[in-house]
Amino acid sequence: MGAPSSTYRVQFTPSFTFADAAEAADYLARLGIGALYASPMLDAREGSTHGYDVVDPTRARPELGGDDGRIALQKRLSELSLGLVVDIVPNHMVVPNPWWEDVLEHGQASRYARYFDIDWSSGRVLLPVLAEDAQDEPGEHFVRVNWRRGNTELNYRRFFDITELAAVRVEDPEVFEATHREVLSWGVTGLRVDHPDGLADPGGYFRRLREHFDGWLVVEKILGPDESLPQSWPVDGTTGYDALREICGVFIAPTDTFAGDFHEVEHSSRQQVVDSILAAEVRRIARLVQGVPFEDACQAVAEVMVNFPVYRSYLPEGLRHWETAVHRAKSPAARALDEQVRADPHGELATRIQQTSGMVVAKGTEDTAFYRYTNFVALNEVGGSPDRFGLSPHEFHQRAANREAGEPNAMTALSTHDTKRSEDVRARLAVLAEIPDEYLAFEAAMTEKHGISEPTLNRLAWQSLVGAWPITEERIGQYLEKASREAKIATSWVDRNAEFDAEVAAWPQKALNEPEVAAFAERIKAPGWSNSLGQKLVQLTAPGVPDVYQGTELWDFSLVDPDNRRPVDYAVRRELLDRLESGWLPEIDDSGAVKLLVVQKALHVRKRGLHGFRPLNAEGPAADHVLAFERSGVITVATRLPVELAQKGWQDTVLPLPGPEWTDVLTGRPASEDLASLFDRYPVALLVRGES
Predict the structure, then answer these.
(1) Strands 54-60, 42-44: parallel, antiparallel or unpaired by DSSP?
(2) Which residue, 200, 172, 201, is CA-closest to 113?
(3) Which CATH architecture has domain 434-522?
């Protein structure tokens, strides 16, 4: 089975089931989608709105329609020539679950004891579930303790710092078979593998998975700006955060106005993580270090993980990343740690420190530093680099050509269920890089009136407000509550600051009633729309398999989850699509119909098959405001940096076209090389040879 032409991500919830997806399938087919890309479909905790808390991997989730509903969905997709891509979660399961309960009842004698990554040296499983420690009862193969002890004493591996998600040992063939048998029997088009960095041996896991599955295989691997997938992994590519960084970056103006020392913030954030919420993991690893005092080993383990330049290494692959981390560590014991890891790169010490480094980076960088370093939050994205402003068209072309040459079937994305903010929020915030002084003056004036006392949250709040405008008090309030607690500066999830929490909760009502906020949001709205259309058209036609996150075929101004899991109104989208199919050319307005036009036209062009990659360059005074390339006789043209462009106009700038008779499929009109003419209706164009 080959890769789909494109995917459309849906988030299954108790209110959006397999039957609901089947009902929406004809709309997706009309839109031009190649495959439905589903959030986890295996049985999860009751009421789950994301499905990553799997409770039983041996059956489709009954709450969503069970196996009958899953079969009916696949039948409907097949009738419409749509594929099915399923998100799977090999790293962890939610506890309690039937296997876990058997372990708690029978201890090491349980047939499932090897299924979970438990340190049995104490003889019992520590369950941090109580408000205060219970009386230790000798007859139990577990002990219940105060919930605060989990971060320092937990003796089973988990998903990040979530105690309810216990790690599964899929490196064991029996465990792999038990957890994968059901989903591999479904005959799906593709699999999206969640969080491979938590696995003991990701490469070995993917090689085993490939023995059982020959379809499209993409992995949620977060790559740094200068990092590549390990070449030994038999996969098609990542889930697209690397492409997101590049596509969004080319629409951001280079500026140093918002510059700061991100790496200092990142380092201190990671250090706080290893000293607090991941202390139990550090201590478990340190006990494996030989010939070094325990506290020294703890310090060395923590320092190495804090200093990783990427999420993790995969020794012997990624040796240079491991060497960098060791070199940056100041503890003398780091040298002993290095020697022991190198001596046995597949041993338990090497394995556990690599598994855990990804947790440190994710919790320290994504979930802490990105909420603390808030100078310009359009760059604070999963896999992003807040210290790198803008990406030149030349660098974009190089990276796109590399993707076409090396991983043409990798997924590309602009919004996901994990992005810190949706693509259209990011596109609007990109405008601020063109008008930094104007924005900072606005922020200063608003802060004087209604500032939040913690400066980094204050900056985040004003940017989020204008980026997601219009937004309700409830939505921005819930977002700021999460952001303030993730930042762990003035308050946190574990140690609440009631006075500060009350200040944050009161802010939305005051800020939303300021007319200057609406005025500034209106100021950046139109250029934000231009950026949105440009980055969407580029994503849908550039190398890789593009994913459309649910609902983002119209404007979508969502913030981080759970805001981005709100219900999608497919009735509105069907109505607009009906009009587009009759030849309607919408205005660029609040309805977002123009984005739907771009998505529908680009997806249908893409289904013809796009191959190769040839950069095209404009000529003239405004040439820097164009991003263009050709693939299989299809030319993508997008406007960039629209504020500066509006000040000087296109003047005599042209895009020389290879050969005569090109038609813009967005408008149906013959294409002109004169960019003022080409872009007189929309800031993007999609050209094909001959008549439309």
Answers:
(1) antiparallel
(2) 172
(3) Orthogonal Bundle (1.10)
Tokens of 473: 């008090």
Read off the pTM: 0.96
Segment 184-223, tens digit of pLDDT: 999 999 999 999 999 999 999 999 999 999 999 999 999 9
- Residues 6 or more apart from 73 whose CB is under 8 A from it? 18, 19, 21, 22, 25, 36, 65, 84
Per DSSP, the chain holds a count of helices (H) and strands (E) of 25, 21
pLDDT in tens, 394-452: 999 999 999 999 999 999 999 999 999 999 999 999 999 999 999 999 999 999 999 99
pLDDT digits (tens, 9 = 90+) for 138-197: 557 888 888 888 888 889 999 998 999 999 999 999 999 999 999 999 999 999 999 999
Hey, how many other C-beta atoms are within 10 angstroms of the C-beta on 53? 23
SS3 state of residue 84: strand
| Residue 313: φ, ψ to 5° | -105, 170
Q: Give the separation between CA 338 and CA 353, rounded to whole angstroms.
A: 11
Domain at 98-167, CATH class:
alpha beta
Distance CA 429, CA 425 (A): 6
- The third-level CATH classification (topology) of the domain covering 7-91+170-239 is TIM Barrel (3.20.20)
Q: Say how many Å lie between the first and final Cα of the chain, rounded.
A: 31
For the chain, the domains span 7-91+170-239, 98-167, 262-372, 434-522
Euclidean distance between CA atoms 666 and 653, whole angstroms = 21
Q: What are phi and psi of 87, to 5 degrees?
A: -80, 125
What strand order describes the sheet that includes 626-631? Answer: 614-616, 626-631, 634-639, 684-689, 662-664, 669-670
Task: Write phi, then psi, for 402 (nearest 5 degrees).
Answer: -65, -40
Structure tokens given for 475: 């939505």
Question: Which sign, positive or negative, has the C-alpha torsion 43, 47, 49, 50?
Answer: negative
Q: How far is CA 258 from CA 45, 235, 427, in A?
A: 43, 38, 17
Backbone angles phi, psi at 73, to 5 degrees: -65, -45
